[in-house]
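Researcher: Sequence recovery benchmark, item below. Answer with residues only.
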């Protein structure tokens, strides 16, 4: 994965973990849980962060008229795995407020 793409993915994760974004998403997913639409607010929020990173990868590839490569998908997962504890911690922190 080229450094620019990796930087974009890291930036998207950072943006998703901002207090404002986490607070807003927590409110939305909490309302979904209250309506019985989802079982877990924290799991939904974790999935959102992953999907935003995944979408950033696909958008980048599309804007450069390139096909996503399987080895990039593996690296995307590795990036996410290295930040998973941080992501979970931030989500847990916002949920406890």
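Model:
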């Amino acid at each position: 994965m080229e450094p620019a793409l990796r930087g974009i993915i890291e930036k998207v994760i950072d943006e998703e973990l901002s207090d404002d974004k986490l607070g807003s998403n927590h409110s939305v997913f909490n309302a979904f849980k209250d309506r019985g639409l989802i079982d877990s607010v924290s799991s939904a929020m974790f999935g959102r962060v992953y999907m935003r990173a995944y979408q950033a990868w696909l958008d980048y590839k599309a804007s450069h008229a390139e096909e996503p490569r399987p080895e990039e998908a593996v690296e995307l997962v590795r990036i996410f795995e290295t930040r998973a504890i941080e992501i979970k911690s931030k989500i847990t922190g916002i949920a406890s407020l």
